């Protein structure tokens, strides 16, 4: 395991930045990113990335949270980045004044410096702009043949190591599900022609899946659709609301409705009266990484039974297309909890024939585990995710 050391001991000294090559400085900026703007665990699908590997990534450092919240190290990183940016500006100015006899190599070096400048400025904004240490804002880019989808997402620190506030951070399952949704919407029944859909997310956390759905449905012209992102933890809900607002600002008109609401899986099924927006069924339900206690699968099944649209021939959204898409990581530490999905939801062929929720398909995706900073399962090289498509058996 590579232990990340403090920026003040690892980075080239501020006074000697000008003596380092652009390549070394780029490496130093990447190092700072590992601390202040890391990737989310397990989001690079192995079959897509095997040809892109450039050597090994550092393994997770258990002291990373402490390092990130160290005010001295953060202010050192800010000073270092400021000095670096000033130096890169000086170099770029020299390049411009020598423009007439600029060779191909010089042009290449200029673009390398511009990339370095851009990366260092972004990181400086992240380090300097976060009100509380540990807050991370990332930009996610997802692509399909239509519009690219860009999402700004903020993770906030876990509350005093409160285990129940895990949704304050973005997990690999949400990244993978959002990527799959945007890359292949047909798999999730989001093809053409556009229909007006009611979509629900359970345990939405920072909201990546719901926000990706909102942007996808808007781009695909499902104009009267609604996305309801739910969670139960107060600080997670506050961050979810703020992430939705950041991605759907009031200033730009949004064709679909997207909102956040409290929904506790343990309590919801017993409610006598279901308040709006839960008083009508949903065409699609999504859940990413929401099975990690033994009761979760049972609670979630009860919620889905109450909330997933039932077979209804009068609906344009025929019952065979109403689905609950669940994606979970197979954590070696949580094999019992993960196995409860298949105990609680039978496979379609094994079902009793009564109208009930069954697993219609099960697909496994393997992702690289690099970039993890808060694994509960150790430093495995790869993470397996299972995608269950669940629907009504008839
Ligand atoms: C591991 S996080 C996953 C968050 C998000 N889906 C993602 O993948 O980034 C689990 C989520 O389930 C939520 N959760 C846990 N127990 C819950 C309950 N009883 N009712 C509603 N949400 C719950 C947590 O607050 C958290 O947001």
TrEMBL record:
A Pfam family that the UniProt record links to this protein: Methyltransf_16
MF terms in GO: S-adenosylmethionine-dependent methyltransferase activity
Source species, domain of life: Eukaryota
Signal peptide range in chain numbering: none
Classification via PANTHER family: HEPATOCELLULAR CARCINOMA-ASSOCIATED ANTIGEN, S-ADENOSYLMETHIONINE-DEPENDENT METHYLTRANSFERASE OF THE SEVEN BETA-STRAND FAMILY
Protein name per Swiss-Prot or TrEMBL: S-adenosyl-L-methionine-dependent methyltransferase
Annotated source species: Daedalea quercina L-15889
